[in-house]
Structures are given as C-alpha cells and as structure tokens.
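Consider the tokenized backbone below.
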C-alpha cells in the first residue's frame, strides 16, 4: 500500500512563509516525479509545482519566484512558500507518479493539508 502524507499547513499572515512536506511510504520500485496541487474555496484543483528526476522543476506562473519545490534522497518532497497572500489560501495536495513495477506507473494523491493566509 502506497501512501502520501502531507504536513506543514496552517494559518499564516499575509507576507509570511510556510514549508509543506510530503512523505511517500509503502512498497514501490521508484517515483518518477512528485508535485503539489491546490484547491481553493469554490475553485478547481490547480497545478502548483513539480519536480522530476530530483532536479527538473516546473512551476505555475502564479507562484514563480515565491515557491520552491525540492526533494531529498528519500521519498520526500517539500514546498517552501514565501510572500504568501490570501489568494494562496487552499488545501494543498501532494501528487506522485509511483512505479511499483518497472513499466507501470500510477498516480497517487495525499489527503491534503490546509493553508490559510489571513490577518
């Protein structure tokens, strides 16, 4: 059973920072890429950032220069969020391409962590 567990969300004032973490656990061969999505109140889930092969990153235009995605040598990914605004308020979801058997990749989601930006 593969699981993605996020942590690090919370309440922060505008202009503040948060660091989200996502830990992948379970039995699998490797991970092709990990990323973050978010879903704000009354909005559709949207792409935030991804990292593939541990180094290639991609960001949504609305977070460039403010958010940084990284991954460590274990199956963990992080999202450093700076200069947060109320528009960043959302549930943030971790996403990963899990390869349990070579040649077969499945998409997994975490349960989400709430980020609220408010004064």
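A designed sequence for it:
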């Amino acid at each position: 059973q593969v699981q993605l567990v996020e942590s690090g969300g919370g309440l922060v004032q505008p202009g503040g920072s948060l660091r989200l973490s996502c830990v992948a656990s379970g039995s699998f061969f490797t991970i092709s890429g990990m990323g973050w999505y978010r879903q704000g109140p009354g909005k559709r889930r949207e792409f935030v950032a991804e990292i593939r092969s541990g180094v290639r990153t991609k960001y949504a235009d609305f977070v460039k220069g403010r958010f940084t995605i990284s991954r460590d040598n274990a199956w963990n990914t992080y999202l450093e969020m700076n200069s947060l605004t109320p528009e960043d308020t959302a549930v943030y979801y971790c996403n990963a391409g899990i390869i349990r058997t070579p040649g077969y990749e499945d998409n997994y989601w975490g349960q989400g962590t709430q980020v609220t930006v408010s004064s």
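The chain has a mean pLDDT of 94.
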